[in-house]
Amino acid sequence: MNIGGFDTDKEVFIIAELSANHNQEFELAKKGVQVAYEAGCNAVKLQTYTPNSLTLDIKDERFRAGDIWSDEYLYDLYRRACMPYEWHKPLKEYADKLGILLFSSPFDKEAVDILEDIDVPAYKIASFEITDIPLIRYAAYKGKPIIISTGVGDAEDIKLAISACKSVGNEDIVLLKCTSAYPAKPKSMNLLTIPDMKKRFDTEVGLSDHTLGLDAVIASVALGARVIEKHFMPDENIDTPDSAFSLSPKQLKEMVKSVRNVEKMLGGIKYDGKSKEYVRSLYVSRNIKKGEPFTKDNIKSIRQKDGLHPKFYEAVLGKIATKNYRTGEPLVLSF
């Protein structure tokens, strides 16, 4: 799949998720773009919303946040976590200047319009929006690749989201395995879903990871993930709404390096040994005169090439030498 000129068939597409780690400071957000670029990521992702895009300003237990934010109401959390709309254009321009892709997760149609105005290369549908079919259809209609996290979606939700994209002629779809917990525990990941997801839904697949550390990312690449999304901090020394489960700049760079190394290790399907310099073969281990039999005392399988294949060892034993052999000579016979 082509995402803003990047071919996911050639390399894993690595997305650095800034989320709320800008702390509503523009220079920190700008630093985040730079950190993602310097780490070697292919894209940096924002979130485009206001509190009203997501919830109602109601102080009721049903409207209380969960996980690490359980002491806050949702509206208050989103108010201090959202990125001002007016930042999007200058951040996109800065990313373009550096040479890193920048796109975002829209949470309503207004956000899609804002992002379309700055010509983002893709749209990301967050896990909790997977059932917002009108939003998915509206974003997909723009003709850009649609990356969908599946953290709270079951198989039917995923099918509906895919159908929404295809209904407007958009088949450039990436599904991300995701566990919507912050942070997510290793036992909740079920990464074997990744290859099944690719087979079941016939789309490109990847991982949106909320675990601590890099293990899930590395394992997912080995399982076939072609897109990786991970939260990161522009500065590890500050506290933000998402800092508890975000990578430091150093860890982000380590993640990119590890992913690229895993890609090299995966290589292709290959069974031919490249070097057979020290593959075993049959050699003369004691001088043999013409007319003497080959025995366990005068021939041996050793780590040297050029001799007869060891599979012929038993067949050779007892046969009569037709010439003299010196110790250390490869045994070559016709069968």
Structural summary, described in words:
- The protein contains eleven helices and twelve strands.
- By secondary structure, it is an alpha/beta fold.
- An eight-stranded parallel β-sheet has the order 5-4-3-10-9-8-7-6.
- It has helices at about 25-40, 50-55, 75-80, 90-100, 110-115, 135-140, 155-165, 195-200, 215-220, 250-265, 315; strands at about 1-5, 5, 15, 45-50, 100-105, 125, 145-150, 175-180, 205-210, 225-230, 280-285, 300.
- The mean pLDDT is about 95.
- It folds into two domains: about 1-265, Aldolase class I (TIM Barrel, Alpha-Beta Barrel), CATH 3.20.20.70; about 270-335, Type Iii Antifreeze Protein Isoform Hplc 12.
- About 30% of the residues lie in helices and about 15% in strands.
- Helix 1 (about 25-40) packs parallel to helix 4 (about 90-100), helix 1 (about 25-40) packs parallel to helix 10 (about 250-265) and helix 9 (about 215-220) runs parallel beside helix 10.
What is the average per-residue confidence, as pLDDT, rounded to a whole number? 95
Could you tell me the CATH topology label of the largest domain: TIM Barrel
What is the CATH homologous superfamily assignment of the largest domain?
Answer: Aldolase class I
Strand arrangement, major sheet: 5-4-3-10-9-8-7-6
In oligomeric terms, what are we looking at?
single chain
* Computed Rg: 29 Å
Order of helices and strands: EEEHEHHHEHEHEHEHEHEHEEH
Distance between the termini: 54 Å
Q: What best-fitting shape do the alpha-carbon axes yield?
A: elongated
Question: Total helix count?
Answer: 11
The CATH class designation of the largest domain is: Alpha Beta
Please give the CATH architecture of the largest domain: Alpha-Beta Barrel
> Proportion of β residues?
15-25%
